[in-house]
């Protein structure tokens, strides 16, 4: 018999709450943005990784509707050469 029988249940409870994190709020919904403009390069750059890939919803916290608009805006900005398709190459 363990010395502290409640120790085991406490560990289970801590493991359960460790995975439950606060839900991220969509930045576009918070600002009440109607349309995402492809010309706002500084804002769009936050949603690209260092490899110039579009960040997923689970990482950025955007809602599904704005994530779709964001993907279209990023692709348009790439076509017009406002944003890169590939990451910057660093030479030593």
Short description, anyone?
The protein is about 45% helix and about 0% strand. It is mainly α.
Provide a descriptive summary of the structure in words.
This protein has helices at 6-18, 27-30, 41-45, 57-60, 64-79. The mean pLDDT is 85. By secondary structure, the protein is an all-alpha fold. The protein is elongated. It contains 5 helices and no strands.
Count the beta strands.
0
What's the average pLDDT?
85
Helix content: 40-55%
The biggest sheet, with number of strands, parallel, antiparallel or mixed sense and barrel status, is:
none
Model regions low in confidence, pLDDT < 50 over at least 5 residues: none
The shape is elongated
Order of helices and strands: HHHHH
Q: How does the SSE layout of this entry go?
A:
Layout lengths: L5 H13 L8 H4 L10 H5 L11 H4 L3 H16 L13
Features:
92 residues, mainly alpha, 5 helices, 46% helix
């Amino acid at each position: 018999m363990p010395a502290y029988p409640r120790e085991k249940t406490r560990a289970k409870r801590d493991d359960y709450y460790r995975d439950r994190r606060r839900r991220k709020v969509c930045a576009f919904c918070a600002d009440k943005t109607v349309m995402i403009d492809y010309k706002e390069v500084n804002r769009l750059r936050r949603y690209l990784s260092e490899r110039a890939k579009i960040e997923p919803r689970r990482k950025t916290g955007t809602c599904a509707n704005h994530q779709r608009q964001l993907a279209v805006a990023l692709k348009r900005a790439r076509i017009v050469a406002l944003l890169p398709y590939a990451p910057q190459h660093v030479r030593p």
